[in-house]
Amino acid sequence: MQDTQLLREGLALMGLGMGFVFVFLTVLVISVTLMSGVIRRFAPEAAPVATAKSATPATSGTPQEDELKVVISTAIHRYRNRHRD
Fold this sequence. Notes:
Blueprint: H1 3-42, H2 63-82
Catalytic activity: oxaloacetate + 2 Na(+)(in) + H(+) = pyruvate + 2 Na(+)(out) + CO2
GO biological process, one term: sodium ion export across plasma membrane
Cofactor: Na(+)
């Protein structure tokens, strides 16, 4: 076999393999999308979760709790600002 013929066969085999993988992945994406649509259509909707209300009033908290809320919200705000794209 000549080198050019061997190279052509290798490229043909590569193209065939890549084409097969492309077709397989396309079929996989389409089937997953269709199954997701079927599940969304026939699955029952989730019931809303009832939360228990606390016995203490929501507006009054100890000074330590209020300070902790401020510190946590400030930390979250700084983290989000630093890690933006």
